[in-house]
Amino acid sequence: MPEQLWFTSILNRVLGGPVNAILQALPPAFHPANPQAPITNGTAMEILVVGIILLIFLLVRSRLSVDKPGGLQHLVEMLDEFVSNQSEEIIGHHSERFTPYLLSLFLLILLANMIGLIPGFESPTSDYAMPLGLAVLTFIYYNVHGIRAQGPIGYLKHFMGPVWWLAWLLFPIEIFSHSARLLSLTVRLRANIFAGDKVTGAFFNLIPLGVPVIFLMLHVAVAILQAYVFTLLATIYLQGAVAEPEH
Q1: Which residues lie closer than 8 Å to 194 by C-beta, 6 or more apart?
Q2: Which of 108, 150, 206, 210 is spaced 20 to 30 A from 135 at the CA atom?
Q3: In the chain, domain spans
């Protein structure tokens, strides 16, 4: 069993009892491996990252200013504009309704990737649970919006291709292709962050000064890139789901 982080230990002391009671009421597959510490390091880090994002949004909201915007407001506005422009270029008109989800997704993955660089913390994206959860959420999100945009029948035709007599062949291929996106999103994010954490940690243990800084900067670059790639793919999947079919 992995050693508990200090933040995980605090959560288990405060919330371990109620969390264990809830999990025990669910089917056996959801029962914790350690009832005394049902909250894992990955779950604790996810809670911490979400708390940090909520704090950022509250700070920005409480200090909004048109005349004298602060540095944090500038940064959030730049990220919002970047995500909005990208989604508009890919999805087209009326893409602004997807910006809150895409921006939240980018910030969540970015902070989850970066928090592992702080001593005493771990990146929750280096475990399968969070990447898989985000992949499932994104999968549901773009399919729901595809059904809303085209209707159930119209969206079903989306999987059958442009030629009706090839629908019997294209439909299972499209279903498999869309399902494989779950695996692709999960493995890409988890593998890169897991490898980055291990390489950075190994060099810090071997050579405490100098050389590890290079790998630290590389890890930062990978963390930003993976957050961007995940968000970009989510945007592309949304475009494919809500795009009107050509006649």
Answers
A1: 126, 127
A2: 150
A3: 1-39, 44-242
Which residue, 85, 81, 66, 60, is CA-closest to 235?
85
In three-state secondary structure terms, 34 is coil
Please choose, from the candidates 126, 116, 114, the residue with its C-alpha nearest in 3D space to the C-alpha of residue 190: 126
> pLDDT digits over 80-130, tens only?
999 999 999 999 888 999 999 999 999 999 999 999 888 889 999 999 999
The model's pTM: 0.90
Burial of 216 (0-12, 13-18, 19+ CB in 10 A): middle
Q: Of 109, 86, 110, whose CA–CA distance to 98 is shortest?
A: 86
Helices (H), 63-128: 71-91, 99-114
Per-residue pLDDT of 57-78, as tens digits, reads: 899 888 888 778 888 888 889 9
Q: Quick one: which of 231, 185, 242 has its CA closest to 80?
A: 231
Distance CA 18, CA 180 (A): 36
Q: Which of 55, 61, 86 is nearest to 73 (CA)?
A: 61
* CB contact at 8 A, 174 and 161: yes
Other C-beta atoms lying within 10 Å of the C-beta of residue 86:
18
Average pLDDT, the chain: 88
Angle 9-199-51 from CA coordinates, rounded to 5°: 35
Q: What's the helix, strand, coil split of the chain in %, to 5?
A: 80, 0, 20
pLDDT of residue 247: 42
Contacts of 66 (CB under 8 A, 6+ apart): none
